[in-house]
Amino acid sequence: MNPYAGTLKRLQDAFYSGITRPIKFRISQLRGLSRFLKENRNLLLDTLARDLNKPSFEAEISEIVLCEEEIQLALNNLHKWVKDEPVEKNLVTQLDSAFIRKEPYGVALIIAPWNYPLNLLLVPLVGAIAAGNYVVLKPLEISKSMERVMAEVLPRYLDQSSPDLARIISPKHFLRARGLLGSGRVAFGGQSDEQERYIAPTVLVDVKETDPVMQEEIFGPILPILTVSGVEEAIAFIRKREKPLALFAFSNDWKVVNKVLDQTSSGTFAGNDGFTFMTIISMPFGGVGHSGMGKYHGKFTFDTFSHGRGCVLQSPHLEFINKLRYPPYSQGRQRLLVWLLKHKLSLPCSIL
């Protein structure tokens, strides 16, 4: 029996009560999230330092500031994002009202990884709240200090969806990551401390495609290097595997960078750059195929957590026009209806 069935039922009942749907409620939650970041800035910086030994500069920029930017963007644009989106109509439906309505999916579960425990929990949360969903947050238990802050401090600023905190028992990630150091040869780094769950930044060379480090997502400070004969072989290597979440091409020759861009597919691409694309919230970030579903950052997060519901509303007073569609049929009616379906008229006209 599912031990979370009761919790899920309570969350679904809360969602169907309609509490999360009003724009006013969504805005109040986003403002609460903003206050959480402002009033607990030092606490969050200290927490990130304890869990990850993350420098204050990096934590400020990559974790806190980017979250604040996401919140402000949502607050500035929410009224525009939630508006019904009119769609182009054919002549048959020209007098009807046809549009896409952005509806929340319902109850969303957000699970944060360990590498950006604040950013990757709150950025999706912003979009999920903006879209009108009820949300369950799952901080990663490896980041114990951040997990405690999320469980004890954040709820003071938001309307609580449930007193329960989702928890998933984690495998021993440190031992898994350390085991990957046996692939190839360590050219740099390689030191580790099990008590501190620390692995030094490590570069592996003489790595083979079949080595364990090449068979899974690393989620650790380990960089395996495979030697290829040239850009063609590198592209072939990428294309025969599942599409990556992010792809980076470094070269002094822009033709090489553009060739990799044109002949591969990935969730995100960067040429001669690392991760600064994460700071551009007007650009989507997300996977493709096996590397992930959906996109986030700004309105892309709102769209990911929204269902685009196609809607057509027709006035009952125009039923006489619909006689064209009803039997008895005739060739004349058929030709007229086909013509109407194939042609569009740019009239901003709808009658309800």
Automatic annotation (TrEMBL):
One example of the protein's molecular function in GO is: aldehyde dehydrogenase (NAD+) activity
Tell me a GO cellular component.
Answer: cytoplasm
User: Which Gene3D superfamilies does the UniProt entry name for this protein?
Assistant: Aldehyde Dehydrogenase, Chain A, domain 1, Aldehyde Dehydrogenase, Chain A, domain 2
Q: Which UniProt keywords apply?
A: Oxidoreductase
Q: Hey, which family's this protein in? A: Belongs to the aldehyde dehydrogenase family.
Protein name as annotated = Aldehyde dehydrogenase domain-containing protein
- Pfam families in UniProt: Aldedh
Is Oxidoreductase among this UniProt entry's keywords?
yes
**Mind telling me which SUPFAM superfamilies this protein's record contains?**
ALDH-like
What range(s) does the Aldehyde dehydrogenase domain occupy?
A: 21-154, 184-306
Which BP terms does GO give this entry?
aldehyde metabolic process
Organism the protein comes from? Sarcophilus harrisii
The superkingdom of the source organism is: Eukaryota
Q: Among its keywords, does the record have Transferase?
A: no
